[in-house]
Write a structure and sequence with these properties.
7-stranded mixed β-sheet, 7 helices, two-stranded antiparallel ribbon, 9 strands, alpha/beta
Amino acid sequence: MKKFLFNYVLPYFLYVLILVWCWTIRKSRKNSEKENFVRNLSKNYILTLWHGRIFYLFYYLRRRPDFHLLISPSQDGDLLARLAKLMGYSVIRGSTFKKAISSARSLIKVLRRGERIIIIADGSRGPRIKAQLGSIQLAAITGSPLIPITYGAANKIELNTWDRFVLPLPFTRCVISFGQCIFVSQRPDEKVVREKQKELEVALNNLTTSSE
């Protein structure tokens, strides 16, 4: 019974809760031209964001089955995978820690089909607001541009977690911000990779600061 509730009842409860919660939020777009450009892109790309800014963007980007999320094969991942499917995303089960090579191959296949992925720049374990290599490597291999995205909330709660997870309060205003495309050359050397890591970090942090 407990497993049934966790796997089949809780995802629907969270789905309704997120929809109602986020429906109350007033949204504005800080750079609508950039967002329109991204939404009209017909080729592959990688949307990337900080882990602490997942909540409202999970709602805002919903109903896009061409957006693929990498979700771990753990028990918690089962719950998140069902929730993501209810929100209208496509799901790839895998981990950046265990069987990372097979997970990367799955993401590469998606991008080479001309579809899109959403990837957390600082990963599922941090360190916080430090871009990891994964998104840079995927961009280099597939020729996909990295597109930073974030949001700010006028009234919010920051949880005492490693990522300082942001929960916008109901009826507040959220500002959605898209950044410039970041391109990574094929087979970049270590210096270029580090430079792109820093470029992504700066872009996401500047977007976040300007959205608050």
